[in-house]
Amino acid sequence: MKSYRQELWFETKEKREYINITPKVRAAVQQSGVKEGLVLVNAMHITSSVYINDDEPGLIKDFDEFLEKMAPYDKSRYRHNRTGEDNGDAHLKRQVFGREVIVAITQGELDFGPWEQIFYAEFDGRRRKRVLIKILGE
Amino acid sequence: MKSYRQELWFETKEKREYINITPKVRAAVQQSGVKEGLVLVNAMHITSSVYINDDEPGLIKDFDEFLEKMAPYDKSRYRHNRTGEDNGDAHLKRQVFGREVIVAITQGELDFGPWEQIFYAEFDGRRRKRVLIKILGE
Amino acid sequence: MKSYRQELWFETKEKREYINITPKVRAAVQQSGVKEGLVLVNAMHITSSVYINDDEPGLIKDFDEFLEKMAPYDKSRYRHNRTGEDNGDAHLKRQVFGREVIVAITQGELDFGPWEQIFYAEFDGRRRKRVLIKILGE
């Protein structure tokens, strides 16, 4: 059994950003030498998500509006913000979009459908944050 | 280490359907010969979900209404639909219900609680779409 | 390849509770002897969730209000409750917060970012319910 670990680091310019990390995950899978297995890709912070969907700019805008309507940025709205934070909304957005994805590796490749792309969704950026890639297989 | 891969194909009659795929996943686990491991079951398309919950018709209607209220089908509402698509709602519904489940395999069986059932949730059907089953273990 | 399985049992005092189970998952990882691998932690019931976020009491209250607003407890609101149940809301809350998390194991430890904590979220408690821990690796 082989295992492989890599971190991806981000420091977004905007508070919220949606970054296609598929090429980086693909490179990690090749680097690992794993031909049959699973790759876990997870946000290591609790105000960001990793998810799989389409890389279409209009859709990403729809996602952002959907989450902002559901859990708007608002300094005074959330109990969490009484601790001195202002990112209560980002914790909620992350809960809706999830922390992680698991993708099958088959014959050394990400075993994807036609439009699947892996995204890092930053909901409280402008600071250094990480994603973990962990690969298991052989 | 063993690995096993299988695709399930669907072409639903309705635009939205909720299909219990537990028997098919169970059969794949038996086919794989894996006694201790993990099975990943994921939608290979980005307008459908795989999730685990109860197989109760009233509940499934509740789920459908919940998602339709949160992200209604509407040709003009979503930026994504300006690309000529009409499935912006389906992308959003899929984000809420998620892409995949991972189930433990113990002694050759799905290691389930009393009511757990695996569902394929189609949000933009009437065309051929796939689910991936990937099993890892020994 | 090693595998390890453990159940955690809960019987909450309140209908809804959010319990930090990180120490128990950490102990299971040590018990398993797995140094490189994956740990799956999932609710075995369909009215509770396992998720990863911060252990901050204000935030947990925000989460609870968010879910209660989205899918309020209401005996007459849900079709599912016509079966004699009163937990339609709990099935919906669980869908939003998810069933499971997968965490990487690296050098025998949970491979976590600075604030990640694993929670069991009970949405229909006051009865005995279970979480499954399944570990795969070597």
* CATH-defined topology of chain A: Jelly Rolls
Broad shape of chain A: elongated
The CATH superfamily name of chain A is YjbQ-like
How many domains in all of chain A?
1
Q: Which range best describes the helical content of chain A: under 10%, 10-25%, 25-40%, 40-55%, 55-70% or over 70%?
A: 25-40%
CATH architecture descriptor text of chain A:
Sandwich
* Helical segment count of chain A: 3
Low confidence ranges of chain A:
none
Average pLDDT of chain A, to the nearest integer?
98
CATH class of chain A: Mainly Beta
Oligomer: homotrimer
Q: Supply the helix-strand structural class of chain A.
A: alpha+beta
How many beta-strand runs of chain A? Answer: 8
Largest sheet of chain A: 5 strands, antiparallel
First and last CA, distance of chain A = 5 Å
SSE string of chain A:
EEHEEHHEEEE
What is the CA-based Rg of chain A, rounded? 16 Å
